Amino acid sequence: MTATTLQAYRAGLLHFHADPAFAEHAHAWHEDGLLIVADGKVVAAGDYAQLVGTLPPDTPAADYRGKVITPGFIDVHVHYPQTDMIASPAPGLLPWLEQYTFPTERAFADPSHAAGVAEFFLDELLRCGTTTAMVYCTVHPQSVDAFFTASEARGLRMIAGKVLMDRNCPDFLRDTAESGARETEELIRRWHRHERSLYAITPRFAPTSTEAQMAVTGELANAYPDTFLQTHVSENEAECGWVKTLYPQARSYLDVYDRYGMLRPRAVFGHCIWLDGEDRARMAATGSAAAVCPTSNLFLGSGLFDFEKADQAGMRMALATDVGAGTSFSMLQTMNEAYKVARLKGSYLPALRMFYLSTLGAARSLHLDDTIGSFAAGREADFIVLDPQATPLLARRTANSDSLEELLFALALLGDDRAVAATYSAGRLVHERRD
Ligand code: GUN
Ligand code: ZN
């Protein structure tokens, strides 16, 4: 039997055990903290002075004093094939899909192209401190194989799936109800719960699936209840109007998915901007979650997510980049824009809440909070080291921050990949910033 390898990390330590919007003591903050890890899992997190005595004297300890360790960020909605077309301008969602997205995704029929993009994408996630993402691949099953092969080689916990689409898209990107379901089932068998990989059934959005494909997709979601499901809903007004003409019998856009049994735990719906009260109540009642994508929504002019109404309904939600419509891989930059979206809707998102929504809140949205998202004992040791002195401006601003909230707010508003000094996955260093 191999001996347990203990590792320790000294820094400011922040994590959550509840949602700060609904609980008074939702977070743990240890200004001089210690995180203890063994065999890729958290052993303990607390005050340095209290925990250091529990360690054997020869335990290796990394000294990150002056920096802040948090659980790794979780991005619950991102398209890896769109990495190379980030920042492509178009007047709204539907022209953007036609002009850039579909032609770009065509290239993923080639496994070596897919593998190259997957490597760059994962580098970028880790540089930004994102240790888990819920990822759209393309319609090509080989794009999923390339992605999980790359993420498993790095030991990452990732969720991904093959896009299903059999209408209203170019012929070169179409599957059929039958082939899409068969390929999805093969991919579930190959990848779901293989190492740290998890599979997401991925109908792109209602307009690009026939009713036959929606029906078999709902059956798959039901047959494999512990898989994930991801799609887009109510992102853009033109799209919502289109869905009305395609599915006239449905009460709302979200109701299209509901009718096919796709609202369930581990189902994550991208955007959720134009939902009504009944939709939000269904999201909450079914344990589904919203992926809130502010940089994408502002970039495409899609609209403003209503955090207050989502909270009133008790919806699960988490922040997400939605690259390539999203304009940054950084969850810090995503918080920056989320804060402004909330302000424009007349509500307020404290920095603590935004960090929650990118860590434990995201894990809860995915029903993975027993595995990732906090430093509770036994959680996988995916964590990041944030540097409040990463840039001259951050250093100057955080030198006079009077509270944890001010420190986190400065990191969210002014930080990006430069603020991530190191990223660890299952206790292994997977990114270190070059100074
Ligand atoms: N709706 C359908 N496909 C997409 C996509 O790739 N990106 C975004 N933002 N919305 C979509
Ligand atoms: Zn998307």
Automatic annotation (TrEMBL):
One GO MF term, please? zinc ion binding
The EC number(s) attached to this protein equal 3.5.4.3
Per its UniProt record, the required cofactor names are: Zn(2+)
Query: Which GO BP terms apply?
Result: guanine catabolic process
Q: Which UniProt keywords apply?
A: Hydrolase, Metal-binding, Zinc
One CC-aspect GO term: cytosol
InterPro entries (UniProt xref): Amidohydro-rel (IPR006680), Guanine_deaminase (IPR014311), Metal-dep_hydrolase_composite (IPR011059), Metal_Hydrolase (IPR032466), Metallo-dep_hydrolases (IPR051607)
Report the superkingdom from the record: Bacteria
Give the cofactor binding note. Answer: Binds 1 zinc ion per subunit.
Give the metabolic or biological pathway: Purine metabolism; guanine degradation; xanthine from guanine: step 1/1
Catalysis: reaction(s): guanine + H2O + H(+) = xanthine + NH4(+)
Q: Name one Pfam family in it.
A: Amidohydro_1
Gene3D superfamilies referenced in this protein's UniProt entry, alphabetically? Metal-dependent hydrolases (3.20.20.140), Urease, subunit C, domain 1 (2.30.40.10)
PANTHER family for the chain: GUANINE DEAMINASE
NCBIfam families found in the cross-reference section = guan_deamin, PRK09228.1
Q: What does this protein do?
A: Catalyzes the hydrolytic deamination of guanine, producing xanthine and ammonia.
Q: Which family does it belong to?
A: Belongs to the metallo-dependent hydrolases superfamily. ATZ/TRZ family.
According to UniProt, the name of this protein is Guanine deaminase
Organism expressing this protein natively: Pseudoduganella plicata
Organismal lineage: Bacteria, Pseudomonadati, Pseudomonadota, Betaproteobacteria, Burkholderiales
